[in-house]
Amino acid sequence: AQSVTQPDIHITVSEGASLELRCNYSYGATPYLFWYVQSPGQGLQLLLKYFSGDTLVQGIKGFEAEFKRSQSSFNLRKPSVHWSDAAEYFCAVGPRGGSYIPTFGRGTSLIVHP
Amino acid sequence: DVKVTQSSRYLVKRTGEKVFLECVQDMDHENMFWYRQDPGLGLRLIYFSYDVKMKEKGDIPEGYSVSREKKERFSLILESASTNQTSMYLCASRPGHSNQPQHFGDGTRLSIL
Questions:
Q1: What is the DSSP string of B43-92?
Q2: Would you place residue A22 in the very low, low, confident or very high pLDDT band (cuts 50, 70, 90)?
Q3: B38 to chain A, minimum CA–CA distance in Å?
Q4: Would you call B97 and A99 a contact, using CB atoms and an 8 Å cutoff?
Q5: Cβ within 8 Å of residue B77, ≥6 positions away
Q6: A90 and B45: CB-CB below 8 Å?
Q7: Which residues of chain A have a CB within 8 Å of the CB of B42?
Q8: Distance (Å) of CA A10 to CA A88, A108, B32, B39
Q9: What is the mean pLDDT of chain A?
């Protein structure tokens, strides 16, 4: 069965510092991978996705993620964090079965200090 | 842009009531989902609908049912609300049986008293 682990429940960074959020997955084949962001009081918004090809994926809001098959990881990065990046971040892996239902990690809460 | 609209942002109901949460999407998506979000537990799938009148149980279907009479609308029903169903509920939609990302509504924060 597929699974997703986000090892960090909370991460605190200073504004302007770099950011890396970790995501590890367990899946028998090449997965589809997603990162979503949830701002307070909002639904989830897609940041980026990986299906195949180039393992470094660019997303919205200046985020990028790198798929590393050997490490079963899909870590999210941003070179310089802004206060507005404070949010909950979810990694997801698919598909699960014929219905292509993704499995979500438990999320990482990002706190940004001024 | 895809719009997924959940009928209520906040809802307060009493134990034992029958509760309806409504979700409408405007992009003719075949797939629709209901998730429950609780702190530290992430998103847990309650039900999934892959087409009109078609549904599959997710990971935590107990105490819930769903209805999809029209393609654009997916309703979550709490048959007899209990306090342990107090939570944030998120609806999502997606085109077809595909690897495409989901589009989420803003959520309904439901409190059962």
A1: EEEEEEEEETTEEEE-S--TTEEEEEEETTEEEEEESS--GGG-EEEEEE
A2: very high
A3: 9
A4: yes
A5: B18, B19, B20, B21, B64, B65, B66, B67
A6: no
A7: 90, 104-107
A8: 9, 5, 30, 12
A9: 92
User: Given the structure tokens 């997303």, which residue do they identify?
Assistant: A59
CA–CA distance, A52 with A73 (Å, rounded to integer)? 14
Question: Cα(first)–Cα(last) distance of chain B, in Å?
Answer: 37
- Tokens encoding A44: 């989830």
Beta bridge partners of A74: A67
For residues B75-92, average pLDDT: 97
Output the furthest CA–CA distance in chain B (Å, rounded). 39
- Out of A42, A45, A100, whose CB is closest to B99? A100
Residue type, A109: S
pLDDT of residue B20: 97
Contact B4 A43 (CB under 8 A): yes
Q: State both tokens at B94.
A: 């997606």
